[in-house]
Specification:
It is built from 11 helices and 19 strands. It is of the alpha+beta class and 508 residues long. It is globular and about 85 Å long. The termini are far apart. The mean pLDDT is 91.
C-alpha cells in the first residue's frame, strides 16, 4: 500500500504538471524535458536497437518505459517514507532536481517550464506525505481495532484517496496526451493555410511508372503512412503567423523570412524520396511524397555565403540540428524549404509549418523539421546533433532495393511467381534491378519508369518455381553503372548495406 501511495502521488503530480504545461509552457513540460534528455544521452547503439525493435513507435515505447521507471522509484519512495519520515520525500526531491536539470538542457527552456518542474516535485512531495500519513493512521487504527467501526474510517479514507488519485492520473493523463499531442491551436492555424499554386508544378507521374504488381509499395506514400523518425518526444507547436527563419553565420547579409514571405515566393513542387539512415536493408523507414517549397539555393543566394563556408547547420524549434554540405544546397537539385506535402500543408508531425527536403541525403544530415535557423558555417567549426554520437558528417543515401511481394516466409503456389518491389538511388537514378535464386545467376527484372532521379522506382519479375524452399535476393545498379554494395553492414555510421533477402516456401 505504501508503494501504491508513492506511485499515485507521483503520477498525479506529473499529470497535473502536464496539464498546466499545456497552458503555460506548451513547448516544454517536465516529462518531455526528461524524455528529450534521455534521447540525447542514449548511445547510438541503443537508439538503433530501439528503432529496429519499435520502428516509428519508438517514442511511445520510451514514454511507457519512463512511466514504468517513474512508477518503480515512486513506489520505493512510498515504502521508505512509510518507514522513515521525509526519506521518501527526499527521493522525490532528487527526481524533481533531475527534472529541473533536464528542462535547463532544452532549447525551449523558459521560466514557466522551470517553475513547473519545481511545482510538480513539490506537489508530489505533498501528496506523498498526505497518503502515507493516511496509511499510517489506518495502521494505527488496525492495531487497536474498534469493533463498532465497519469499515475502519482511516482505511476507507486512505483507499478513497488512493482511488481518486489513480483515477485522476488515468483520466488526466489521457486528457494531457490529447491536449498536448493534438496541438489544437496549431492544428486550427494549419487548417487555415491555403497553399499557393506552384510556379513550377511537379511533372506528371508517367503511366509506366507503376509496375502493376498487387501489394507493392505505392509510388507516392500517403501522409498518414509516411515514416516518422525524429528526436521530438512531443510535436513542436509552432504558430505559422509567428514563425521566422533566420539565416546567419558566414554570410554577407543576415536574412529573416516569415511564413507570409515564404508563401509569396515562386514555389516549386517536386516528388522526392526521403530515407532515414537507420533504415535497415529491406526496411520501411523510407517514403516518397510530392513536396511544395522554395529552393534553398535562392534563399542562400540572398544571404551570400562567404568564401570558406562549406556547411549549413539547420536548427529545429526543439533544438535539434543537422549539418548539410553547402554545395548540396547550392547546386541544381531540388532542395526545398517545404511547406506542402502531397497537396496539403505539412502535417504537424512532419514539420509544420516549414521543413527541409534535400534529395540524395539521409534525413539526419538534411531533413530538419520545424526549421527555424540556417547557419552558414564550416564542418571544422560546428557539429550537428548526430555527429558527436558516432555518425558520419555527410550522409549520401546509398543505392538500395527491396522485395515487397511476395512477403518473406509466406507460402506461394508453384508455377510463375511474381516478385515486385522498389529500388532507389536518389539524385542518380536506377538503371537496372536484378534477382537471383539460391545464390545462382542474376536475372534482370522489368524496371518501371522513374518519376524522377530523386524518387524510387518500382520493378517486377516473374520466376518459374517448383515446390520447395528458395532464397531470393535483389540488387540494383544506378544509372552511372555502380552496383549496390552487397556486403552486409549495419546502419551506423552512414547507412546500412547488403542485399535484401527473403525466403519463399513454394507449395504445390
Amino acid at each position: 500500500m505504501a508503494a501504491a501511495a508513492g506511485a499515485v502521488a507521483a503520477g498525479s503530480a506529473l499529470v497535473l504538471g502536464e496539464l498546466l504545461a499545456g497552458v503555460f509552457s506548451p513547448a516544454l513540460s517536465p516529462v518531455t524535458a526528461v524524455g528529450g534528455a534521455v534521447i540525447d544521452a542514449v548511445p547510438p547503439a541503443v537508439k538503433d536497437w530501439a528503432v529496429a525493435l519499435f520502428g516509428t513507435a519508438d517514442k511511445v515505447a520510451l514514454l511507457v518505459g519512463m512511466a514504468l521507471v517513474i512508477a518503480g522509484f515512486a513506489g520505493l519512495a512510498g515504502v521508505v517514507e512509510d518507514r522513515r519520515r521525509y526519506a521518501g520525500a527526499a527521493v522525490v526531491g532528487v527526481f524533481g532536481l533531475a527534472g529541473l536539470a533536464a528542462v535547463l538542457t532544452r532549447a525551449q527552456a523558459n521560466a514557466n517550464a522551470m517553475s513547473l518542474a519545481v511545482f510538480t516535485a513539490l506537489v508530489a512531495v505533498i501528496l506523498l506525505r498526505l497518503l502515507v500519513r493516511m496509511l499510517q493512521e489506518w495502521g494505527s487504527q488496525a492495531a487497536t481495532p474498534d469493533p463498532t467501526a465497519t469499515p475502519a474510517p482511516a482505511r476507507r479514507r486512505f483507499l478513497q484517496a488512493l482511488a481518486s488519485g489513480a483515477a485522476f492520473t488515468a483520466v488526466g493523463g489521457v486528457l494531457a496526451a490529447a491536449w498536448r499531442g493534438a496541438a489544437a491551436v496549431v492544428s486550427e492555424a494549419r487548417g487555415r493555410v491555403a497553399l499557393p499554386a506552384p510556379a513550377s508544378a511537379a511533372p506528371a507521374i508517367p503511366a509506366t511508372a507503376d509496375a502493376g504488381v498487387e501489394g507493392i509499395t505505392p509510388l507516392v506514400t500517403p501522409n498518414a503512412d509516411f515514416y516518422r523518425i525524429d528526436t521530438a518526444l512531443t510535436v513542436p507547436a509552432i504558430d505559422p503567423d509567428t514563425w521566422v527563419l533566420k539565416v546567419t553565420g558566414m554570410v554577407d547579409r543576415e536574412v529573416e523570412l516569415s511564413f507570409a514571405d515564404l508563401l509569396a515566393k515562386p514555389l516549386v513542387e517536386r516528388h522526392v524520396t526521403l530515407a532515414c539512415v537507420s533504415n535497415n536493408v529491406g526496411g520501411d523507414l523510407i517514403g516518397n511524397a510530392r513536396w511544395l517549397g522554395w529552393p534553398v539555393r535562392e534563399l542562400l543566394a540572398l544571404a551570400g555565403p562567404r568564401p570558406g563556408a562549406d556547411m549549413v547547420l539547420s536548427r529545429s524549434a526543439d533544438g535539434w540540428t543537422a549539418g548539410t554540405p553547402l554545395e548540396v544546397l547550392s547546386d541544381g537539385r531540388d532542395a526545398l524549404l517545404a511547406i506542402g506535402m502531397n497537396g496539403e500543408p505539412l502535417p504537424l508531425e512532419h514539420g509544420f509549418p516549414v521543413r527541409l527536403v534535400v534529395p540524395g541525403l539521409y534525413g539526419y544530415v538534411s531533413a530538419t523539421k520545424w526549421v527555424t535557423q540556417l547557419k552558414v558555417t564550416r564542418f571544422a567549426d560546428d557539429v550537428a546533433y548526430w555527429t558527436p554520437r558516432g555518425w558520419s558528417e555527410r550522409g549520401p543515401i546509398k543505392t538500395s532495393s527491396r522485395i515487397d511481394v511476395p512477403r518473406g516466409g509466406r507460402p506461394v503456389k508453384a508455377g510463375k511467381v511474381l516478385f515486385g518491389g522498389v529500388a532507389w538511388a536518389q539524385h542518380t537514378g536506377i538503371g537496372k534491378v536484378e534477382l537471383r535464386v539460391n545464390r545462382g545467376a542474376w536475372q534482370q527484372a522489368e524496371l518501371a519508369e522513374g518519376i524522377s532521379l530523386d524518387t524510387w522506382y518500382q520493378w517486377k519479375l516473374g520466376l518459374d518455381l517448383t515446390e520447395g524452399q528458395y532464397e531470393i535476393q535483389v540488387r540494383a545498379t544506378d544509372l552511372s553503372g555502380r552496383i549496390q554494395d552487397e556486403q552486409s553492414r549495419p546502419a551506423a555510421p552512414d547507412g546500412a548495406t547488403g542485399l535484401h533477402t527473403i525466403r519463399v516456401d513454394v507449395k504445390p
